[in-house]
Design goal:
The chain is 24% helix and 31% strand. The chain has helices at residues 2-17, 55-64, 91-103, 138-147, 170-177, 194-202, 240-249, 264-274, and strands at 36-41, 69-72, 106-114, 121-125, 151-154, 183-188, 191-192, 206-210, 230-235, 252-256, 259-262, 275-283, 287-294, 300-304, 312-315, 320-326, 332-345, 348-357. It binds zinc ion (2 copies). Residues 112, 121, 155-156 line the site of one zinc ion (ZN).
Protein backbone atom coordinates (compact mmCIF):
# COMPACT_ATOMS: atom_id res chain seq x y z
CA UNK A 1 0.00 0.00 0.00
CA UNK A 2 2.79 2.34 0.97
CA UNK A 3 4.63 1.44 -2.23
CA UNK A 4 1.60 2.28 -4.38
CA UNK A 5 1.25 5.64 -2.66
CA UNK A 6 4.90 6.34 -3.32
CA UNK A 7 4.56 5.44 -7.01
CA UNK A 8 1.48 7.66 -7.35
CA UNK A 9 3.29 10.52 -5.65
CA UNK A 10 6.29 10.12 -7.91
CA UNK A 11 4.05 9.99 -10.97
CA UNK A 12 2.24 13.17 -9.99
CA UNK A 13 5.54 14.93 -9.34
CA UNK A 14 6.86 13.78 -12.73
CA UNK A 15 3.75 15.07 -14.50
CA UNK A 16 4.02 18.41 -12.72
CA UNK A 17 7.60 18.74 -13.87
CA UNK A 18 6.72 18.16 -17.55
CA UNK A 19 6.52 21.28 -19.68
CA UNK A 20 2.98 22.45 -20.22
CA UNK A 21 2.60 23.96 -23.64
CA UNK A 22 1.13 27.39 -23.34
CA UNK A 23 -1.82 28.27 -25.50
CA UNK A 24 -2.15 31.29 -27.69
CA UNK A 25 -5.38 32.70 -29.01
CA UNK A 26 -5.23 33.81 -32.63
CA UNK A 27 -6.98 37.10 -33.29
CA UNK A 28 -8.96 36.81 -36.50
CA UNK A 29 -8.52 40.07 -38.37
CA UNK A 30 -7.42 39.53 -41.96
CA UNK A 31 -4.34 40.74 -43.82
CA UNK A 32 -5.20 43.47 -46.34
CA UNK A 33 -3.76 44.86 -49.58
CA UNK A 34 -0.71 42.61 -49.38
CA UNK A 35 0.17 43.85 -45.88
CA UNK A 36 0.28 41.62 -42.86
CA UNK A 37 -2.07 42.84 -40.12
CA UNK A 38 0.01 42.88 -36.94
CA UNK A 39 -1.73 43.11 -33.57
CA UNK A 40 0.27 45.48 -31.39
CA UNK A 41 0.13 47.10 -27.96
CA UNK A 42 2.54 50.02 -27.60
CA UNK A 43 1.68 51.10 -24.06
CA UNK A 44 2.02 49.08 -20.84
CA UNK A 45 3.71 49.21 -17.44
CA UNK A 46 5.73 46.98 -15.13
CA UNK A 47 7.13 47.21 -11.59
CA UNK A 48 9.83 49.48 -13.06
CA UNK A 49 7.24 52.26 -12.86
CA UNK A 50 3.68 51.97 -11.51
CA UNK A 51 2.80 48.55 -12.98
CA UNK A 52 2.37 45.44 -10.85
CA UNK A 53 4.19 42.76 -12.85
CA UNK A 54 7.71 41.82 -13.87
CA UNK A 55 8.61 42.62 -17.53
CA UNK A 56 8.62 38.96 -18.70
CA UNK A 57 5.00 38.63 -17.53
CA UNK A 58 3.99 41.29 -20.06
CA UNK A 59 5.58 39.18 -22.78
CA UNK A 60 3.74 36.00 -21.70
CA UNK A 61 0.40 37.78 -21.47
CA UNK A 62 0.74 39.43 -24.87
CA UNK A 63 1.76 36.19 -26.55
CA UNK A 64 -1.18 34.26 -25.02
CA UNK A 65 -3.60 36.96 -26.15
CA UNK A 66 -2.44 36.70 -29.75
CA UNK A 67 -0.38 39.87 -30.04
CA UNK A 68 2.53 40.16 -32.48
CA UNK A 69 4.41 43.11 -30.99
CA UNK A 70 4.54 45.11 -27.77
CA UNK A 71 6.38 47.99 -26.24
CA UNK A 72 6.90 48.18 -22.48
CA UNK A 73 6.65 51.88 -21.71
CA UNK A 74 7.41 52.54 -18.07
CA UNK A 75 7.20 56.13 -16.84
CA UNK A 76 10.47 58.03 -16.75
CA UNK A 77 9.35 60.51 -14.10
CA UNK A 78 7.02 58.41 -11.97
CA UNK A 79 8.39 55.37 -10.10
CA UNK A 80 6.41 54.59 -6.97
CA UNK A 81 8.33 51.30 -6.46
CA UNK A 82 11.71 53.03 -6.59
CA UNK A 83 12.68 51.91 -3.06
CA UNK A 84 12.34 48.24 -4.13
CA UNK A 85 13.07 48.44 -7.85
CA UNK A 86 15.78 50.98 -8.56
CA UNK A 87 15.53 53.41 -11.45
CA UNK A 88 16.98 51.80 -14.56
CA UNK A 89 15.02 52.89 -17.60
CA UNK A 90 16.42 50.30 -20.00
CA UNK A 91 16.00 47.26 -17.72
CA UNK A 92 12.34 46.38 -18.56
CA UNK A 93 13.31 45.96 -22.22
CA UNK A 94 16.52 44.06 -21.44
CA UNK A 95 14.78 41.69 -19.03
CA UNK A 96 11.90 40.96 -21.44
CA UNK A 97 13.94 40.69 -24.66
CA UNK A 98 15.05 37.04 -24.35
CA UNK A 99 11.60 35.75 -23.52
CA UNK A 100 10.05 37.77 -26.36
CA UNK A 101 12.60 36.44 -28.86
CA UNK A 102 11.88 32.87 -27.73
CA UNK A 103 8.18 33.30 -28.38
CA UNK A 104 8.53 35.21 -31.64
CA UNK A 105 6.95 38.29 -30.10
CA UNK A 106 8.45 41.56 -31.32
CA UNK A 107 9.61 43.79 -28.47
CA UNK A 108 10.13 47.49 -29.08
CA UNK A 109 12.12 49.61 -26.64
CA UNK A 110 9.95 52.45 -25.38
CA UNK A 111 9.11 54.74 -22.51
CA UNK A 112 6.41 57.08 -21.25
CA UNK A 113 7.30 60.76 -20.89
CA UNK A 114 5.15 61.80 -17.98
CA UNK A 115 4.37 65.49 -17.45
CA UNK A 116 1.48 67.30 -15.81
CA UNK A 117 -1.49 68.05 -18.05
CA UNK A 118 -1.02 69.98 -20.28
CA UNK A 119 1.06 68.82 -22.12
CA UNK A 120 0.33 65.37 -20.55
CA UNK A 121 1.91 61.99 -21.32
CA UNK A 122 3.75 60.85 -24.45
CA UNK A 123 5.17 57.51 -25.48
CA UNK A 124 8.45 57.40 -27.36
CA UNK A 125 9.13 54.04 -29.03
CA UNK A 126 11.93 52.55 -31.18
CA UNK A 127 14.52 54.08 -28.84
CA UNK A 128 18.08 52.77 -28.52
CA UNK A 129 18.63 54.21 -25.05
CA UNK A 130 16.00 55.69 -22.75
CA UNK A 131 18.43 57.49 -20.43
CA UNK A 132 18.94 60.64 -22.59
CA UNK A 133 15.18 61.28 -22.22
CA UNK A 134 15.50 61.55 -18.44
CA UNK A 135 16.01 65.29 -18.48
CA UNK A 136 14.27 68.27 -16.95
CA UNK A 137 13.02 70.45 -19.80
CA UNK A 138 10.02 68.94 -21.59
CA UNK A 139 11.03 70.09 -25.07
CA UNK A 140 14.54 68.73 -24.49
CA UNK A 141 12.99 65.33 -23.82
CA UNK A 142 11.09 65.41 -27.12
CA UNK A 143 14.24 66.57 -28.92
CA UNK A 144 16.17 63.68 -27.33
CA UNK A 145 13.54 61.28 -28.67
CA UNK A 146 13.78 62.92 -32.10
CA UNK A 147 17.59 62.56 -32.07
CA UNK A 148 17.06 58.79 -31.80
CA UNK A 149 14.47 58.84 -34.61
CA UNK A 150 11.81 57.64 -32.18
CA UNK A 151 8.11 57.52 -33.01
CA UNK A 152 6.30 59.68 -30.45
CA UNK A 153 2.59 59.75 -29.74
CA UNK A 154 0.33 61.65 -27.35
CA UNK A 155 -1.20 59.32 -24.78
CA UNK A 156 -4.79 59.35 -23.42
CA UNK A 157 -5.21 63.03 -24.51
CA UNK A 158 -8.37 63.83 -22.55
CA UNK A 159 -7.97 61.68 -19.44
CA UNK A 160 -8.05 64.61 -17.00
CA UNK A 161 -10.70 66.62 -18.86
CA UNK A 162 -14.27 66.90 -17.63
CA UNK A 163 -16.99 65.95 -20.17
CA UNK A 164 -17.16 68.65 -22.84
CA UNK A 165 -14.01 70.41 -21.62
CA UNK A 166 -11.44 71.42 -24.26
CA UNK A 167 -8.20 69.57 -23.64
CA UNK A 168 -6.06 70.25 -26.69
CA UNK A 169 -3.96 73.05 -25.19
CA UNK A 170 -1.67 75.62 -26.80
CA UNK A 171 1.36 73.58 -25.81
CA UNK A 172 -0.09 70.54 -27.62
CA UNK A 173 -0.51 72.67 -30.76
CA UNK A 174 3.09 73.85 -30.32
CA UNK A 175 4.31 70.25 -30.14
CA UNK A 176 2.38 69.56 -33.34
CA UNK A 177 3.76 72.63 -35.12
CA UNK A 178 7.32 71.66 -34.20
CA UNK A 179 6.75 68.20 -35.67
CA UNK A 180 7.63 66.49 -32.38
CA UNK A 181 4.86 63.87 -32.43
CA UNK A 182 3.71 61.50 -35.13
CA UNK A 183 0.75 59.77 -33.52
CA UNK A 184 -2.22 60.19 -31.18
CA UNK A 185 -3.56 57.51 -28.86
CA UNK A 186 -7.23 58.00 -29.72
CA UNK A 187 -8.22 55.02 -27.56
CA UNK A 188 -6.52 54.19 -24.25
CA UNK A 189 -7.94 51.14 -22.48
CA UNK A 190 -11.67 51.57 -22.89
CA UNK A 191 -11.64 55.36 -23.30
CA UNK A 192 -12.11 56.91 -26.73
CA UNK A 193 -11.07 60.55 -27.06
CA UNK A 194 -13.33 61.94 -29.78
CA UNK A 195 -11.84 65.46 -29.97
CA UNK A 196 -8.31 64.09 -30.16
CA UNK A 197 -9.51 61.62 -32.81
CA UNK A 198 -10.83 64.50 -34.96
CA UNK A 199 -7.63 66.49 -34.30
CA UNK A 200 -5.52 63.48 -35.33
CA UNK A 201 -7.50 63.12 -38.58
CA UNK A 202 -7.23 66.85 -39.35
CA UNK A 203 -3.45 66.81 -38.91
CA UNK A 204 -2.85 63.38 -40.40
CA UNK A 205 -1.45 61.79 -37.27
CA UNK A 206 -1.14 58.03 -37.00
CA UNK A 207 -4.05 56.57 -35.04
CA UNK A 208 -3.02 54.54 -32.02
CA UNK A 209 -4.96 52.44 -29.50
CA UNK A 210 -3.34 50.64 -26.58
CA UNK A 211 -4.11 48.92 -23.29
CA UNK A 212 -1.96 50.99 -20.87
CA UNK A 213 -2.19 47.92 -18.67
CA UNK A 214 -0.82 48.25 -15.10
CA UNK A 215 -2.25 45.18 -13.31
CA UNK A 216 -1.70 41.56 -14.34
CA UNK A 217 -3.77 40.79 -17.46
CA UNK A 218 -7.15 39.29 -16.78
CA UNK A 219 -7.61 35.74 -18.08
CA UNK A 220 -10.86 36.99 -19.62
CA UNK A 221 -8.81 38.90 -22.16
CA UNK A 222 -8.23 35.57 -23.92
CA UNK A 223 -11.88 35.75 -25.08
CA UNK A 224 -12.46 37.69 -28.32
CA UNK A 225 -15.20 39.82 -26.71
CA UNK A 226 -12.86 40.90 -23.88
CA UNK A 227 -9.71 41.51 -25.92
CA UNK A 228 -7.39 44.32 -24.89
CA UNK A 229 -7.39 47.54 -26.91
CA UNK A 230 -4.70 47.33 -29.58
CA UNK A 231 -3.24 49.01 -32.64
CA UNK A 232 -3.55 47.07 -35.89
CA UNK A 233 -0.47 47.76 -37.98
CA UNK A 234 -0.52 47.03 -41.71
CA UNK A 235 3.11 46.10 -42.18
CA UNK A 236 5.15 44.78 -45.09
CA UNK A 237 6.43 41.98 -42.88
CA UNK A 238 6.60 40.98 -39.24
CA UNK A 239 9.69 42.93 -38.16
CA UNK A 240 10.32 45.91 -35.89
CA UNK A 241 11.58 47.94 -38.89
CA UNK A 242 8.43 47.20 -40.88
CA UNK A 243 6.25 48.27 -37.93
CA UNK A 244 8.13 51.55 -37.70
CA UNK A 245 7.74 52.15 -41.45
CA UNK A 246 4.00 51.46 -41.23
CA UNK A 247 3.56 53.76 -38.21
CA UNK A 248 5.41 56.58 -39.95
CA UNK A 249 3.16 56.14 -43.00
CA UNK A 250 -0.02 56.04 -40.89
CA UNK A 251 -0.95 52.46 -41.80
CA UNK A 252 -2.82 51.58 -38.60
CA UNK A 253 -6.28 51.06 -37.20
CA UNK A 254 -7.48 50.88 -33.61
CA UNK A 255 -9.31 47.77 -32.41
CA UNK A 256 -11.28 48.24 -29.21
CA UNK A 257 -14.39 46.44 -28.01
CA UNK A 258 -16.36 45.50 -31.12
CA UNK A 259 -15.21 48.60 -33.02
CA UNK A 260 -12.36 49.39 -35.38
CA UNK A 261 -11.33 53.01 -35.96
CA UNK A 262 -9.29 53.86 -39.02
CA UNK A 263 -9.08 55.36 -42.45
CA UNK A 264 -11.85 54.26 -44.81
CA UNK A 265 -9.70 52.24 -47.19
CA UNK A 266 -8.20 50.13 -44.39
CA UNK A 267 -11.62 49.51 -42.87
CA UNK A 268 -13.05 48.58 -46.25
CA UNK A 269 -10.12 46.20 -46.76
CA UNK A 270 -10.82 44.52 -43.41
CA UNK A 271 -14.53 44.20 -44.14
CA UNK A 272 -14.03 42.79 -47.62
CA UNK A 273 -11.36 40.32 -46.56
CA UNK A 274 -13.56 39.14 -43.65
CA UNK A 275 -16.88 38.70 -45.47
CA UNK A 276 -17.58 36.01 -48.06
CA UNK A 277 -20.82 35.75 -49.99
CA UNK A 278 -21.42 32.20 -51.09
CA UNK A 279 -23.16 30.81 -54.13
CA UNK A 280 -25.54 29.25 -54.99
CA UNK A 281 -28.11 31.82 -54.00
CA UNK A 282 -31.62 30.74 -53.09
CA UNK A 283 -33.85 32.69 -55.43
CA UNK A 284 -37.56 33.41 -55.53
CA UNK A 285 -39.35 35.80 -57.92
CA UNK A 286 -38.65 39.06 -56.07
CA UNK A 287 -35.82 38.20 -53.74
CA UNK A 288 -32.61 36.27 -53.32
CA UNK A 289 -31.25 34.78 -50.12
CA UNK A 290 -27.48 34.77 -49.88
CA UNK A 291 -25.30 33.07 -47.31
CA UNK A 292 -22.76 35.50 -45.88
CA UNK A 293 -19.83 34.18 -43.85
CA UNK A 294 -17.84 36.40 -41.52
CA UNK A 295 -14.41 34.91 -40.81
CA UNK A 296 -13.28 37.69 -38.47
CA UNK A 297 -13.59 38.21 -34.70
CA UNK A 298 -15.74 41.31 -35.23
CA UNK A 299 -19.54 41.32 -35.25
CA UNK A 300 -20.19 43.67 -38.16
CA UNK A 301 -23.24 45.90 -37.61
CA UNK A 302 -24.80 47.34 -40.78
CA UNK A 303 -27.48 49.99 -41.14
CA UNK A 304 -29.22 50.58 -44.45
CA UNK A 305 -28.68 53.96 -46.11
CA UNK A 306 -30.12 52.95 -49.49
CA UNK A 307 -33.64 51.98 -50.52
CA UNK A 308 -33.57 48.18 -50.53
CA UNK A 309 -32.50 45.38 -48.25
CA UNK A 310 -33.03 44.74 -44.53
CA UNK A 311 -32.90 47.95 -42.46
CA UNK A 312 -30.22 46.48 -40.20
CA UNK A 313 -27.97 43.45 -40.61
CA UNK A 314 -25.53 41.85 -38.18
CA UNK A 315 -22.84 39.49 -39.39
CA UNK A 316 -21.74 37.74 -36.18
CA UNK A 317 -18.06 36.87 -35.78
CA UNK A 318 -17.10 33.48 -37.15
CA UNK A 319 -20.63 32.69 -38.33
CA UNK A 320 -22.70 32.47 -41.51
CA UNK A 321 -25.93 34.39 -41.94
CA UNK A 322 -28.67 34.22 -44.59
CA UNK A 323 -29.61 37.67 -45.89
CA UNK A 324 -32.72 38.22 -48.01
CA UNK A 325 -32.23 40.82 -50.73
CA UNK A 326 -35.20 42.11 -52.77
CA UNK A 327 -34.32 42.23 -56.50
CA UNK A 328 -35.75 44.25 -59.39
CA UNK A 329 -37.05 42.81 -62.66
CA UNK A 330 -33.51 42.63 -64.05
CA UNK A 331 -32.43 40.54 -61.06
CA UNK A 332 -30.33 43.20 -59.39
CA UNK A 333 -30.37 45.39 -56.29
CA UNK A 334 -28.62 48.67 -55.47
CA UNK A 335 -27.37 48.19 -51.93
CA UNK A 336 -26.06 50.95 -49.70
CA UNK A 337 -25.15 50.46 -46.04
CA UNK A 338 -23.10 51.97 -43.24
CA UNK A 339 -21.02 49.61 -41.14
CA UNK A 340 -21.64 51.40 -37.86
CA UNK A 341 -18.80 49.75 -35.89
CA UNK A 342 -16.11 50.49 -38.48
CA UNK A 343 -15.51 54.16 -37.71
CA UNK A 344 -13.79 56.56 -40.09
CA UNK A 345 -14.36 59.50 -37.69
CA UNK A 346 -16.15 59.97 -34.35
CA UNK A 347 -19.76 58.85 -34.82
CA UNK A 348 -19.22 58.10 -38.51
CA UNK A 349 -19.44 54.56 -39.87
CA UNK A 350 -17.94 53.16 -43.05
CA UNK A 351 -20.19 53.71 -46.11
CA UNK A 352 -20.46 50.84 -48.55
CA UNK A 353 -22.48 50.59 -51.74
CA UNK A 354 -22.64 47.95 -54.42
CA UNK A 355 -24.82 46.67 -57.21
CA UNK A 356 -25.84 43.15 -56.40
CA UNK A 357 -26.63 40.75 -59.26
CA UNK A 358 -28.69 37.68 -58.51
CA UNK A 359 -26.83 35.49 -61.01
ZN1 LIG B 1 -0.01 57.98 -19.01
ZN1 LIG C 1 0.83 54.66 -19.23
Amino acid sequence: MRKTALIVTLLVLTLLALPVWAQRREIRIPDIYGYTTLKCDFHMHTVFSDGLVWPTVRVDEAWREGLDAISITDHIEYQPHKADVPTNHNRPYEIAAGKAAGLGLLLIRGTEITRNTPPGHFNAIFLNDINPLDTKDFFDVLEAAKAQKAFVFWNHPGWKAKPGEKYIADINEQIREKGLIQGVEVVNGRSHYADAHTWALNHNFTLMGNSDIHSPADNDQMQPENHRTMTLVFAREKTVEAIKEALLKGRTAVYFGNTIIGKGDFLEGIFEASIHVQKPYVQSKNAVSVLVTNESDIDFELRRTGKVGPSTITFPAGQSTFVKIPIDKDGKAELAYTVTNLCTAPGKGLSLSTTFYAD
